[in-house]
Design goal:
Helices cover 38% and strands 17% of the residues. The strands form two sheets. A six-stranded parallel sheet has the order 1-6-5-4-2-3. It has 318 residues and is an alpha/beta fold. Strand 9 and strand 10 form a beta hairpin. Helix 3 packs parallel to helix 4 and helix 4 crosses helix 6. It folds into two domains: 193 residues, Alpha-Beta Complex (inorganic pyrophosphatase (n-terminal core)); 113 residues, Diaminopimelate Epimerase, Chain A, domain 1, CATH 3.10.310.30. Bound molecules: manganese (II) ion (MN).
Length: 318
């Protein structure tokens, strides 16, 4: 990226052909997800790798790290420091520079961002950003569908997996007709909906039991705020997925705002979701950000986030 000129040179791309055109003459393309990549980040990274590789000859690498359950999605490759500046870098699923899985990603020539999060720091030269999409995989599937790209079943599954995991199987408030259309296209291209749903929902019985035990900690106020304060150590120890925790919170009929507050070693993160209230607006005074209906606040300690919970509850009284 050309520092100091970034805003001037920043342009929005619109189509998959635009991306292809940018990659066509590149020596190499490197796809970069965010730190601790989730199903959407990896689905988008490996899905895009396959989409590009089927249409061009330059090598497309994905960098990152696997979790216990993500190995089926693809293989990562090493990138030495000198490669970054000589490659087209495509960042997927994060608009935050500090969350890039590799700091040198911003040296890409150019850097392209494909994302569904609100724009933060402009570390990229070109962006395909759609804040009303449920997921980066939905954006990619929609781009592919518009150009009637033919995908192999594995690629269709990677993209569908990203959509299903970011929406907790279509429960997310941003799930729309566009999401459904993208899914229809992916099914036409050979994606296997039921297999992926099973993969995302089936748990070892001991995990299910632990999940229900842990959910005893959920509090629901009389104003309709459901909140769950949980240690990251508990999540790790029991192999809980974030989507499992959100599923339980979303199933509470009395709740019009749900909050998951995760305590890590060095920080606490409060995730709030609602189908009706503008959480981005409600959380901005606390340094929060994200989407209108799905927003988060980070803090070094618990106390300020307990205040956020208190204030959300107060808001619901009105
Ligand atoms: Mn995502």
């Amino acid at each position: 990226m050309w520092f100091g000129q970034s805003l001037l040179y920043n342009t929005f791309m619109r189509t998959f052909t635009d991306i292809q055109r940018r990659c066509k003459d590149a020596k190499q393309v490197i796809i970069v997800p965010h730190l601790h990549p989730d199903g959407d980040a990896l689905g988008a990274a490996f899905g895009l790798q396959a989409m590009l590789q089927s249409t061009m000859t330059s090598h497309v690498k994905v960098v990152g790290e696997h979790s216990d359950t993500s190995r089926w999605m693809g293989s990562f490759e090493r990138v030495v420091d000198s490669e970054w500046a000589q490659s087209v870098v495509i960042v997927v699923d994060t608009a935050k520079q500090e969350l890039l899985i590799h700091p040198k990603a911003i040296e890409g020539n150019p850097v392209i961002l494909i994302d569904h999060h609100p724009v933060e720091s402009v570390f990229y030269d070109h962006g395909i950003i759609n804040e009303s999409a449920t997921s980066t995989c939905e954006i990619l599937a929609t781009l592919a569908e518009r150009e009637s790209l033919s995908l192999d079943p594995k690629t269709a599954n990677l993209l569908l997996f990203g959509i299903l995991s970011d929406t907790t199987i279509l429960q997310h408030p941003y799930t729309s007709k566009t999401t459904m259309k993208a899914i229809g296209y992916l099914l036409d291209e050979g994606a296997t909906y039921k297999v992926l749903v099973n993969q995302l929902t089936k748990r070892e019985f001991k995990t299910t039991k632990a999940l229900f035990q842990a959910s005893e900690a959920i509090q629901v106020t009389e104003n309709g705020l459901a909140y769950w304060i949980i240690d990251y150590a508990t999540i790790k120890k029991n192999n809980f997925e974030f989507s499992d925790l959100f599923s339980i919170l979303r199933s509470i009929e009395e709740a019009s705002i749900i909050v998951l507050l995760v305590q890590l070693d060095d920080e606490c993160v409060l995730h709030a979701q609602s189908d009706q209230y503008d959480l981005q607006k409600l959380l901005t005074p606390f340094g929060g950000g994200g989407h209108k209906f799905a927003s988060k606040v980070r803090s070094a300690s618990l106390a300020p986030l307990l205040q956020v919970i208190e204030s959300l509850d107060q808001f619901l009284i009105k």
